[in-house]
Amino acid sequence: MITINDFVKMNDTDKCNLVNKHLQNHTQKNFKQGEIGFTFRQADKVFSECGIYYLEGAYRTSEQALQFIENKKKEQDQKSFTPEQIEKLIALASCENFDNLLHLAERYNYVSYYILHEINDIHIRTGNGSIKQTSARVYEDTWEKWKSYTAKKKEYNALNLLNTALLEFMDHHPID
Fold first, then answer.
1. What span, in angstroms and rounded, lies between the C-alpha atoms of 85 and 82?
2. How many helices, marked H, and strands, marked E, lie in the chain?
3. pLDDT at 83
4. Mind giving me the DSSP string for 62-80?
5. Distance separating the N- and C-terminal Cα atoms of the chain
6. How far is CA 159 from the centre of its chain?
7. Which residues contact 43 (CB under 8 A, 6 or more apart)?
8. Torsion of CA 62, 63, 64, 65, to 10 degrees
9. Average pLDDT over the chain, rounded to whole?
10. Which of 4, 68, 152, 153 has its CA 20 to 30 A from that of 43?
11. Cβ–Cβ < 8 Å for 18, 7
């Protein structure tokens, strides 16, 4: 059985390995079982004195923690394209396919515009051309509800919300 004194005398890497392995089959409450003769609280106190950190579900020495953070940073900095995707993009942009690419961009521009303006399940639909300023009559209670709604949804432009509502209404109730 490993006592707390034995645990303190271990090197930091062995301490981490022992506790990580033991926690695979035990919890913090039933930590003091089997070959371990000390509580999790005692182990945690030793860890804090030794500069051992708990990162991503495992105890790590300070060196391991720094290495782990550096690796995570490298992962985040990696480009999102695989070599195969890069080859496909190069083939698509080659001179012989350039006309096809332009055609796709022109014909399906609305798809990318639609995707770029999709926010929190409200699919913002904007119109084309210049913005027409007009006045409309609305019932007072409807106007108050609208003002309250747009005040709460500050991430949206009131013009785009109104435009989207009008377009969706016309889509759902077409004139035959």
1. 5
2. 9, 4
3. 75
4. HHHHHHHHHHHHHHHHS-S
5. 84
6. 29
7. 7, 15, 19, 31
8. 50
9. 81
10. 68
11. yes
Residues ≥6 apart with Cβ < 8 Å to 80: none
State how far the Cα of 125 lies from the Cα of 128, in Å rounded to an integer: 10
Give per-residue pLDDT as tens, 74-116. 777 766 667 787 777 777 666 666 676 666 666 655 555 555 5
> Distance (Å, rounded) from C-alpha 150 to C-alpha 117?
17
Cβ atoms 39, 31 nearer than 8 A? yes
Residues in the chain: 176
pLDDT over 90, % of the chain:
16
Pairing verdict, β 122-123 and 118-119: antiparallel
Do 2 and 18 touch, CB atoms closer than 8 A?
yes
Q: What is the full DSSP assignment across 109-168?
A: HHHHHHHHTEETTEE----SSSPPP------HHHHHHHHHHHHH-TTS-HHHHHHHHHHH
Beta bridge partners of 55: 58
> How far is it, in rounded angstroms, from Cα 64 to Cα 72?
12
In the 8-state DSSP scheme, what is residue 52?
Answer: -
Q: Which amino acid is at 147?
A: K
Query: pTM score, two decimals?
Result: 0.43
- The CA-based angle 104-105-110, given to 5 degrees, is 105
pLDDT digits (tens, 9 = 90+) for 6-29: 999 999 999 999 999 988 888 888
